[in-house]
Design a protein that fits this description.
By secondary structure, the protein is mainly α. The protein has one domain. The protein contains eleven helices and no strands. Helix 6 packs across helix 7. The longest helix has 33 residues. The two termini are 34 Å apart. 24% of the residues are buried.
Length: 232
Amino acid sequence: MLKLLLLLTVITNLSPISKKEHNKYIEKERKLVRVKDWKTNFNNLTNLSPSFTNEIEKIKSLFNLSEKDFSISCTPDDIICHPLSRNHIFRRHQDTMKEYFSFLNTLKRKNPDQAAYLIYEIYTLGTTFDHTRETIYGFNYEKPQNAIKQNPEYKKTFESLKNIYYKAQHDLDLATNILKQKYTDNNFDTFMLKFIEIHKLATHAYFNIYNLLYKCIHSQSTEEKNKYCKYN
């Protein structure tokens, strides 16, 4: 939820035009198929939008911070907060950089772009999970509940997609254990092999759960319903 709120905070600070363009970029970014070679992914993301390059440079600006810096926190009760705690880039990536500090610290010295890319992918995958979870919550309302009860295929599809979502989350939890180990090229490659499959599962669940709720059940468009409500 925190990642989602941070992402929304950034988006609301954009102009109406750039906000629209940013949303388009996010959708294209999620649809982009990941491969084992991080550099190919990096180049493909770079070609999508300047948004990716901008974020990479912002992440790299955090690389001079120490492990102690990433333990900084600020609560609503604090009278004085460390300036870093007010930096949205720092807050966005603080948990990732703290949890995998040793791995990332070695990688950033070897290749700053590669380290920033890894941090970026972990964060954006997290926002995909957050948005999927919010969409799943949307099925608790009366109209989706009635639609699922009246159409067994909707329920079957919804449950199947939820299971894919849960599997992707579980697989990511296991995969990130690799990042708690010492950095090696082999460990990075092993993580990427797992990551590309997790990303595939996560985005499949994200797009299809969204389509079922908003382009099928809630849609007023006959064209959309004909396209997205066919589950039998």
